[in-house]
Amino acid sequence: MPAKPVTLTGSSLTADADVALQLVAPSNFLAQLDSRDHEDLTVIARSQQFARGDFVFRAGAPGNHVYFLKSGKVKICQISPLGRETILWFCFPGEIFGLAEVARGGGRVVHAMTCEASEVLAVSQGDFKAYLENHPQAALLSMQVLSSRLRVLGEMFVNLVVDDVNTRIAKLILRLSARYGTRVGREIFLNIPLTHQEIADMVGTSRQTVTSTLSALKRQGVLSMDNHRIHIESEELLSVLTQQ
User: How far apart are CA 155 and CA 126, in angstroms?
Assistant: First the structure.
């Protein structure tokens, strides 16, 4: 079924135009560690190089390591028996992934696949547990990561059940802007590259529908795109769309 037309109404923005270069909720795990915690983690980590399209781990594999993305881009996803991919979230430099099995044990339930050439730091499960026992700041950050991702997955499930595709796309952009956005005055620049197919795989729709929805939002002055990076020109109007 085709997506319904995007219609927006809203009042003028009230954000202070003097606000500049304000980072919105960074999620870089490594950057939040103090120098001692960072150094101690580096000592127990092993660097691994992956080409684009490689699996860092697959669903069903043992969860023996925790990973930190040093460079590149990794998607955490599930793949249906028919080959349909659903992206749960992306990991960008500094972020941690493969963490859930440290807490609950068992094998992987998702895939971690590189979107481009990437360097990953791998830490064995045993070494990481010992590290957390002696580094309370890192332990707290790990809990915050698990809590944040559980909340994101819950929101995604609710959105799939109750929202139309236009609303799901708008909510995704707002959610990503809160984690990876840089605010400049009244505008937000999303500092991560996303293709239309990747957006489609995150909201459960087709690439064509994403292209149509984003084109409608661009015509209405809500956002623009440059080299796969989203520039939110009207956060207020985008928020209005999520409430319809």
Answer: 32
